[in-house]
Structures are given as C-alpha cells and as structure tokens.
Amino acid sequence: MLNPYTKILLSTAYFPPISWFKYLLNTDDVYIEKNEHYIKQTYRNRFHILSANGQMVLSIPVVKATNKKILIKDVKIDYATNWQKQHLKSLEAAYRNSPFYELLIDEFLPYYTKKTNFLFDFNYKIINTILNILEVNKELKFTDHFIETNKYDYDLRYSIKPKKQSSDITDFVNTPYYQSFNEKFAFIPDLSIVDLLFNMGHETYGYLKINTNP
C-alpha cells in the first residue's frame, strides 16, 4: 500500500501516463532511473493521447547509437525530422476543444519550439512543468548507478509500459473522467497526463491523489 514513506523507482517518461504520476504524487521517496540501458517502444520516448481517430501514439525519434547498449541518460534526440511540429499539431487537433487546452497549452509550447539535446533532460523538464501546473513541490531523485536487485518497495521501471498495466494500479487508472471524443469512444484508461490535464484542469491533482489515512 502506498504511503509517504514508500520507496519507488520509476523510469523516465515523455509526458508520462496517469499511473506514473499517481505513484509520483503519493509518496515522498521517488527515484528516476538514470543508468539503465535505453529500451525501445516504451514510455521513455512516447506518449498516448486520444484523437478523433482513436488512440494515437506520439514518439520522439532518437539518435541511433553505435553501441547498442546506451544508457538512458546518454540518449540524444534526433531533430532530422520536424517531429516537434507534428506533435504540437496532433495535440491541437486532439484537445483544442477540451475545457482546459487554451489555459495550459502555452506551458508546453517551449518543448516544441526549442531544442534539448538529451531525452532524459527533455523529459525531466516536462515533468517539472507539470508539477508546477499542479502546484506540487516534489524532490525528484535519480539513481547514481544501475541496481538490478529490488531495493525499492515498488520497482516500476519495467511494469508501467504501453502493452501492460501493473495489476495494483488497474482500479486507479480505470476511474472514468471526461475525455474528448467521448461520444465516439469508450473511456480509455491510463493515457498521457496531458489527456487528464486538458480535460480536467484544476481537478487533476485531486484525481491523482489518494487518501492514505487509516
């Protein structure tokens, strides 16, 4: 059971899913893995939104390393294609009619108009922007080396991923809230935090926070 003293280890993530933020906000002892090898097709460089055509995946291209086993902290973003423009247009098309899009979109524009070399740094800046929007003062810690054995109460580096939900968070992420295009699609759980922010705005924090009182 989560409490402020639970020790949690998360992977980095690009506009992380709702479940990722649920863990982040409900404990004071949070670490983000900085020394694992980069893993393809994960939330580390992609996020899921709901568009007019259904669920959409937006991915950041990364520079291919000569060494296949590159550390996540050393992964560079590839700007050979204008993925920033495409991601911004996709967000606008998906959420421009949502209740809080106009209020919040300016907070995210710098990530699509300026360049950051490293994926880990890019994700870290986004996470801090979201914490500021939520008015949460949270110390994010980082691993200084890779730990294979489980020294954390929750090691979630590999369980929060696009193709699998961790069983102990299912009830949380399935809690319905208003989503854009809800007249076309059934509720989709555990999309990116941006889906929750654009649709719920100031109610996002209350949705993510759980009651830890006995």
What does this protein structure show overall?
The protein has 214 residues and is an alpha/beta fold. The protein has one domain (7-208). It has 8 helices and 6 strands. The strands form 2 sheets. A 4-stranded parallel beta sheet has the order 5-2-1-6, with helices on one face. Strands 3-4 form a two-stranded antiparallel sheet. The longest helix has 15 residues, at 119-133. The termini are close together.
Provide a quick synopsis of the model.
The chain is of the alpha/beta class.
- Measured as a percent range, the helix fraction is 25-40%
How many separate domains? 1
Q: Total strand count, please?
A: 6
Question: In this structure, how is the largest beta sheet organized?
Answer: 4 strands, parallel
Number of helices: 8
Query: What's the overall average pLDDT, rounded?
Result: 90
- Tell me the distance between the termini: 11 Å
Query: Helix/strand-derived class?
Result: alpha/beta
CA-atom Rg in angstroms: 17 Å
Strand order of the largest sheet: 5-2-1-6
Q: What is the 3D form? A: globular
Report the order of strands and helices. EHEEEHHHHEEHHH
Share of residues in strands? 5-15%
